[in-house]
Design goal:
The chain has 299 residues and is an alpha/beta fold. The chain has two domains: 2-133, Rossmann fold (3-Layer(aba) Sandwich); 151-292, Glucose Oxidase, domain 1 (3-Layer(bba) Sandwich). Helix content is 30%, strand content 22%. The two termini are 15 Å apart.
C-alpha cells in the first residue's frame, strides 16, 4: 500500500505513529517521504505535486491500496487533472474521509470505484485501535479483507426514524457532497443509503446545506440516511441543535434515519464504511445496524 498526502500537510510525528500502527496490523506501507511531508501553506504541496503522488499510486502495478495521511483541504484541485488522465481499469483501495470525499465521489461517479470512508494515517491510525480519535479495527479489517461475503456493523447511533431499507451506500462529508452540485461528477443519490457527516458546522449551516441538497433533488428517492456525530457544533441559547435540525428536515422524508454514528469526524474510534456497495440499513428503537451485502474487495 502507498501513503499519499492529497490535501493539507501532516506532522511527521503523527505520520510516523500512524505508520507504526499500520505495521502492527500486518500491512506494509511505502511512501515518498519528501512528497508526503511537503508543506505549501494550507496544502501538502502544489496541486501538480499532489496529483503526481496520486497518479503514481494509481499507476503502480504492485500497489493495491492508497491510504491518505489526512484530509483538511485541497482534494478538489486534483479532479480536473484526474479528468484528463486515463484511470487504470483495475480499481485500487482508496482509504480516507473528510476532504477526501471529493475524490471518492469522483471515482464512483466516473468509474464506479468502491472506496473506503475511514481512518487516515496521521489522524486516526496514529491514535491507535479503539482509542479516542482513533479507529475501529474490526470494521477496517472487514472492509479490507472480506472478499467473499458481506458483514454487519453496529452503527452505535441513535434512531431518529425507524425502518429497514436496502440501497447503495454513498456519501461522505456533508460540505464536500454539496460542492459536487453542478459539476460533471455530481453525486447521484437515487436509491442510495446516504452517509452524511461533518464537523464544526453550526446548526444553521447544517440546515442551509441540507436544504440545498433537498432543493437540488438529492434527498428525493433516497433509501435511508446514516448521519455522523457532527462534533464542535456551537449552539447559542434557545437555538436548535444539529440533531433537532436533522430531525426536522430529514425525518419527514419517510426513510430510516440513524444519527450519531462514529464515522468521519468523531472523537470515538472511527468506523470504516465501504462506499459504493449494496447495503441494508436497519433502524429500530434499540439502535441501528448496517449490513454490507457484498464484498468491497476482490481477490
Amino acid at each position: 500500500m502507498r501513503l499519499l498526502s492529497l490535501a493539507s500537510p501532516v506532522k511527521e510525528h503523527f505520520l510516523r505513529l500512524g505508520c507504526e500502527e499500520i505495521f502492527r496490523i500486518g500491512l506494509q506501507a511505502k511512501m515518498d517521504d519528501a512528497a508526503v511531508l511537503a508543506n505549501a501553506g494550507m496544502f501538502a504541496g502544489s496541486g501538480d505535486e499532489r496529483f503526481s503522488q496520486l497518479k503514481r499510486g494509481l499507476a503502480e502495478p504492485d500497489t493495491r491500496a492508497l491510504f491518505c495521511t489526512r484530509g483538511g483541504y485541497g482534494s478538489t484541485y486534483l479532479l480536473e487533472c484526474l479528468s484528463r488522465e486515463v484511470v487504470p481499469a483495475k480499481a485500487k483501495i482508496l482509504l480516507g474521509c473528510s476532504d477526501i470525499t471529493a475524490l471518492q465521489v469522483y471515482l464512483w461517479q466516473k468509474f464506479g470505484w468502491v472506496t473506503f470512508y475511514g481512518p487516515m494515517v496521521a489522524m486516526n491510525f496514529s491514535r491507535g485501535a479503539g482509542a479516542p480519535n482513533g479507529y475501529d479495527r474490526e470494521s477496517l479489517l472487514s472492509a479490507l479483507n472480506e472478499t467473499a461475503n458481506g458483514w454487519s456493523l453496529d452503527l452505535q447511533a441513535n434512531p431518529l426514524a425507524t425502518g429497514e431499507a436496502t440501497g447503495r451506500l454513498l456519501g461522505g462529508c456533508l460540505t464536500l457532497i454539496e460542492t459536487t452540485l453542478g459539476t460533471p461528477w455530481e453525486l447521484d443519490t437515487e436509491g442510495a443509503i446516504l452517509l452524511l457527516e461533518d464537523r464544526g458546522m453550526k446548526p444553521y449551516a447544517v440546515d442551509r446545506t441540507l436544504m440545498h441538497l433537498k432543493q437540488a433533488g438529492k434527498l428525493q428517492g433516497i433509501a435511508g440516511l446514516v448521519l455522523g456525530d457532527f462534533p464542535d457544533a456551537e449552539v447559542s441559547a434557545g437555538d436548535e441543535t444539529v440533531r433537532e435540525v436533522v430531525e426536522r428536515i430529514l425525518v419527514p422524508l419517510g426513510v430510516p434515519v440513524a444519527f450519531g454514528a462514529p464515522v468521519g469526524h468523531t472523537s470515538r474510534p472511527m468506523l470504516t464504511l465501504p462506499l459504493g456497495v449494496r447495503a441494508r440499513l436497519a433502524v429500530s428503537a434499540e439502535g441501528a445496524r448496517l449490513d454490507i451485502l457484498e464484498p468491497a474487495c476482490v481477490e
